[in-house]
Amino acid sequence: MGEISLRRRYDLVARTDVYEVRLGDEYLMSSLFTASERALADLGLARLDRDRDRLTVMVGGLGLGYTAVQALADPRVAELTVVEYSRPVLDWHRRELLPDAKGLATDPRCRLVEDDFFRRVSEEPEERYDAILLDIDHTPDHTLHPSHAPFYSVAGLRAMARHLTDGGVFGLWSDDPPDAGFEALLGQVFAEVSSHPVAFANPVTGGESSCTVYVAGS
After folding, report:
1. pLDDT confidence of residue 15
2. 17 found inside a domain
3. How many CB atoms within 10 Å of residue 45?
4. Confidence class for position 26, pLDDT limits 50, 70, 90
5. Could you tell me which residues are beta bridge partners of residue 200?
6. Cα(82)–Cα(195) distance, rounded to whole angstroms?
7. Is the pLDDT score of 118 beyond 80?
8. Is residue 6 part of a domain?
């Protein structure tokens, strides 16, 4: 998909070191904006029955690690599998280059796996998860690679849903506002679907920005 790089710079407005990920010339993520990545874990896990414990969770896409770290902050999570396509991203975390995610790679509950998330969930499941949380593409319509597009269909979502336990939850991050068309698509696979705009301060613009977290379950 191109060269992926991690950049650290000092931001004069935020007055802090900022870590950014780029794929070629395409901007992917920044440590300045993490509210929605954290909300993906919080909103997804909150959808599960509170009496469920020893949760097994899969996170698709490691990135800067905020979703995975937030998932492990839930005391009910017993096992976390993070599926990441890019070996350099896994290496950043194993070398602990990211201060906010230090300890993630060595947490005994966490397993970092080098694999293609979309291929993995299209196949027959070897294990099932109480929650699958996905943050790889910009939006369902704006994918990082054309090979990801089939996932965002009824057939692709149904294949992924086979990897969930009974009563399990699927959560998806999107950089766009809630999309009624995608909600309807999720509704063909899951009994309950909700979308959650997540607003956060943007020190670059001096205003407010937002992303969306979709949560779907039976």
Report:
1. 86
2. no
3. 23
4. confident
5. 209
6. 23
7. yes
8. no
- 180-187 and 154-161 helices cross at what angle (nearest 10)? 50
Domain count, the chain: 1
Q: Is 130 among the domain residues?
A: yes
**pTM score, whole prediction:** 0.96
How far apart, in whole angstroms, are the C-alpha atoms of residue 58 and residue 133? Answer: 6
Q: What share of the chain is helix, strand, coil (3-state, %, to 5)?
A: 25, 35, 35
The answer to whether residue 5 sits within a structural domain is no
Residues 6+ apart with CB under 8 A from 22: 4, 5, 7, 28
Quote the pLDDT of residue 1.
76
60-104 confidence digits (pLDDT tens): 999 999 999 999 999 999 999 999 999 999 999 999 999 999 999
- Write the CATH number for 97: 3.40.50.150
Identify the H or E element spanning 39.
helix 35-46
